[in-house]
Amino acid sequence: MIVRLLYFIHSLNRMRILKRVSQLFLRREGKTFHRTMWTKDFLFKVHPSVSQAVAQNKPVVALESTIITHGMPYPHNLSTAKEVEAIVRDEGATPATVGVIEGEICVGLSSEELEHLARSKSPLKVSRRDLPYVISKGLSGGTTVSATMIAAHRAGIPVFVTGGIGGVHRNGQNSLDISADLTELGRTPIAVVSAGVKSILDIGRTLEFLETQGVCVATYGASKNFPAFFTPNSGFTSSCNVHNPSEAAELIASALSLGLQSGVLLAVPIPEEHAAVGHLIQETIQTAVTAVSSEGIIGRDVTPFILQKVNDLTQGKSLQANIALIYNNAKVGSQIACALSKWMSEKRSKSQAQHPGKPPKDSDVVVIGGINVDFIAKGKTKTLHFGQTNPGSVCQSFGGVGRNIAATGADANSDAVFNYCKHMNTSGVARLEKQNTATYCAVINENGELSLGLGDMDIHQQITEHYVSQFEKQISSATLVCLDGNIPVPTINYVCSLTEKYNLNIWYEPTDAEKACKPFLSDAWKSLSYSSPNLAELCMINKTLGLMVPKAKVGVDLVPVLPRSLDETLMVAVALSRPLLENLHCLVVTLGPDGVLLCGEHNAGSVNLQPRKQKIKRQLCALHYPALTVTPEETMNVSGAGDSFAGALMAGILHGRDTDCCVRMGLLAARMSLASPHPISPILTLDSVDPNKVQAQKWPTPRFIWVD
Q: Are 186 and 214 in contact (CB under 8 A)?
C-alpha cells in the first residue's frame, strides 16, 4: 500500500506514460499465446521493441495495415511495408505496424506476420466496428485508420502515419456514407500524419465534418493549402500550418496537454517531383468514379476499386505515386515523432530544473506489486456490532504499491485506478480480461483501528516471472527496485536473482505477517538491501529462517506478545533484526505509535540509508525515532501510516537526503495519513513532507539502542 511512493517520486514512474505494455503468458483453448494487455473490449499484443521504446519515451511511429491487405497487390504491398518500416528506423524512430493476426490486435508486426498479411487471399478490412467480431472469431485483417488509431493510443503511441484518411463520400449528405476515420479523429487523442484526404471523396464536407468533431487540421509546409492525396492542393485550406517537425511536435504536445480527447490531422503534400503525375492521376480518378456508379460498387469496396482502376488506367503510375507519398509521409512523420520525443524530454528536464528536489533520472525506481482499490468503512462508534447495521461512512481509495509493474482487471475499478494515476507511469500494468481488479474492504472503528478486513487479491498471481522479465532492462537500470508481498514467490525470486547480474538495491515491503516470509523461503532474501516490516512481520521472517525468537516475547504461535514497555519493544526488534543484517543493508521496523527503529550500518552517529554499491564488513547499529504526536481526535485511519512512512523514506533516500531528514519526511507522511480518511493521504507531496518547509511540533530526539 505504498500508494504515494510513486507520487513523491513520480519521475521514477516515467519508464514513461506513453503507455506502453509488455507480454503476459496466458492460455486459451489449449493454445499458448504471448499477450500483453486486455482492455474491456479487445486484446492487444505489443511487440517488445515497441513496448520498450514507449516505456523509455523514445520515438515510435504507428503504421496501418490496410495498405498491405487492400492498398496494393503482392509483392508490392510487402516490399512497401518493409521499406516504410526501414525509413522510420533510419529517421531514428521505432515502427509499429498495426494489424489483426488470428484474433489478436498486434501493435508491431514481425516479418512473418507482415508476410502473413501480405499473402492473405481474402483479408478483412478492419475498422472500429469490426474489431469485436474479428477478435471473437480469431480472424486476421488489415486495420484501417480508425482501428489503427485505437490500437496506437492504447499502446501509448502519439504519432500515426498513413497514406490518406477516409472522409465524407461524394453525395454523402444523402447517403450518410462517412468514414469512421473522421469520428475516430474526434474522440481519440493521437496525431495522424497523412497526404490529406483521398481526392475521390468530398473534401470540403470532410473538412467541415472534422471541424464539427473538434479536430485540429494543419498543413505541413509553408502553405495552408490542404492536399488531396495525389495533388498538393485540393482547393481547400487547413485552419493552420506548421513549417517543420519542431512546430508540428509543439502543436501535438499542446493538443495532448489540453486533454481535449480529439486528434490532430497533419496533412503532408505529395513531394514536388511527383506532383506533375499527380495531376494526370486526378483526371483519371474522375473516370474511375464514373465507373463506380456504372458497375454498382458500394460501401467499403469503393476505395479499393477506384485505386485499382486508376492504377490500370495510368499503367502503374498511380501506384508509384502512392508509394512515393507514403514514403514521404513516413519520413516526415518519423521526424515529427523524434521532435515530439525530444520536446517532451526537454520539458521534463526543464521541470526538474525548476523543482530540483526531483530525482534526475526516469528509471530511479521500479515498483513491482499489487494495485488495490480500497473501500474504507469507518464506524461512528468505538465498538462495532457484527450482525447488524452500524452507523458510519464509506469512501473509496487506492492501495497497493504497484504502479510500474502490476496487473488489474478490465473493469470499472481499473478505470478508476488509471484515472487516479494519470501522473504516474502505468505502462507496465497489464489489464486482464475475466479478472477482477484487486479490492480490499477495511472496516474501522471511530478511532481508526481496523476491526475487519476483506480482500480479493487473486489477480496478483498474474504478476508472473515471465511477465516481469519483459521489463528486465528497466529493472536493471533502476537505483532502487521495490517489491511487495502480494506478488508470487517465483517472481520475487526472479527479481532477486538479477541482483548479482546488475548489482541492484531491492526494497521488500511486506504486506502482512503471512506474506512477509516469501523471499525468506529460499536464499533469495540474501539479495535484498532493504525491508520495512512491522514487529509481527519481523517475527514471522525469523520463524521462516528457523532463527531463535525471544521466548519471553512470543506466544505459542510465534507471534510477538506486545511488550510491557517501549524498551522491551525495542529490545525485541533489535534481537529479531540483528541476524538479518548479515545480508540486508538496512531494516526499517515500524512500531506504530512507538515510532520506527532503523537497523543498519553505523555512519557518523547515525544509520546509513543510502544504497550501497557492494557488501562489505561494517559496524552495525540501531536508532529509534519516536512518532510525531497525533491526538485521538486527529486520528482518522491507522491502516496506511506505515506505508506512508516507507514511501516518504524512500523518496528522501533517492533525493540524497541525510538519514535524519529522510526519517522526518516519513514521520510527516505518516502523520498526514493518520489524519486522513484514506489509508494514504491523497494530498501528500514532496513539499508537504519537506522538514525544511513544514513546521512540526518539536522534533523528537532519536536515540541509539545498540551499536555493534
A: yes
Q: Residue 73: is it exposed, middle or buried by C-beta count within 10 angstroms (0-12/13-18/19+)? A: exposed
For strand 191-194 and strand 159-161, is the pairing parallel, antiparallel, or unpaired?
Answer: parallel
CB 507 within 8 Å of CB 478: no
pLDDT tens by residue, 166-195 = 888 777 777 788 889 999 999 999 999 999
Say how far apart CA 20 and CA 153 lie, in whole Å: 10
C-alpha cell, 79: 516490399
Q: First vs last Cα of the chain: how many Å apart?
A: 33
Task: Let me know if 45 is a catalytic residue.
Answer: no
Which residues lie across from 197 on neighbouring strands? 165
Cβ neighbours of residue 37 closer than 8 Å, sequence gap 6 or more: 21, 24, 43, 44, 46, 154, 155, 430, 431
446 classed as catalytic:
no
Q: Encode pLDDT of 208-267 as tens digits.
A: 999 999 999 999 999 999 998 878 888 899 999 999 999 999 999 999 878 778 999 999
Q: Point out the catalytic residue in the list 64, 85, 184, 601.
A: 64
For residue 653 the three cell numbers come to 533516500
pTM of the model: 0.52
**d(C-alpha 585, C-alpha 520), whole Å:** 16
Please provide the CATH number assigned to the domain covering 33-157. 3.40.1790.10
List the grid coordinates of 30: 489449449
Sign of dihedral through CA atoms 326, 328, 329, 331?
positive
- DSSP states of 121-175 as a string? SS-EEE-GGGHHHHHHHT--EEE-HHHHHHHHHHTT--EEE-S-B--BBTTHHHH
Numbered ranges of CATH 3.40.1190.20 in the chain? 466-707
Span 513-560, pLDDT tens digits: 888 999 999 999 999 999 999 998 999 999 999 887 765 443 334 344
Q: In CATH, what is the architecture of 466-707?
A: 3-Layer(aba) Sandwich (3.40)
Beta-sheet pairing, 530-531 with 586-590? parallel
Question: What pLDDT shows up at residue 357?
Answer: 39
The one catalytic residue among 198, 331, 358, 378: 198
Q: Measure the CA–CA gap between 611 and 351, rounded to whole angstroms.
A: 26
Task: Reply yes or no on whether the pLDDT at 483 is more than 60.
Answer: yes
Q: Residues spanned by CATH 3.40.1790.10 within the chain?
A: 33-157
Distance CA(40)–CA(37), nearest Å, equals 10
Of all residues in the chain, what percent are helix, strand and coil, respectively (each to 5)?
A: 40, 20, 35
Q: In which order are the strands placed within the sheet that holds 372-379?
A: 392-399, 372-379, 438-444, 450-456
